[in-house]
């Protein structure tokens, strides 16, 4: 279907306008997506800070428990070593 030069130029101009509009929309959507990604990152960070605030007291308990367990283990090892060395002397 042959087109006149004027029709071709008008069609080309319309396509260029549509491409320009599409690019503008794409840039807008990319900006919105970036804003949403940043907002979600801030929300996640807030959630992690809240979680750390809640677990803070329990971390102290965990440290105390770990220290007590290590101390008990050392005592048991020393008692066992004493028992082994005592049984060798007999």
UniProtKB/TrEMBL annotation:
<keyword id="KW-0175">Coiled coil</keyword>
<protein>
    <submittedName>
        <fullName>Uncharacterized protein</fullName>
    </submittedName>
</protein>
<feature type="coiled-coil region">
    <location>
        <begin position="5"/>
        <end position="46"/>
    </location>
</feature>
């Amino acid at each position: 279907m042959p087109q006149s030069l004027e029709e071709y130029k008008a069609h080309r101009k319309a396509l260029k306008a549509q491409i320009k509009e599409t690019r503008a929309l794409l840039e807008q959507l990319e900006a919105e997506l970036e804003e949403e990604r940043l907002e979600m990152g801030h929300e996640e960070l807030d959630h992690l800070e809240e979680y750390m605030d809640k677990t803070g007291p329990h971390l102290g308990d965990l440290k105390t428990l770990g220290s007590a367990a290590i101390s008990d283990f050392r005592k048991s090892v020393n008692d066992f070593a004493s028992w082994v060395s005592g049984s060798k002397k007999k």
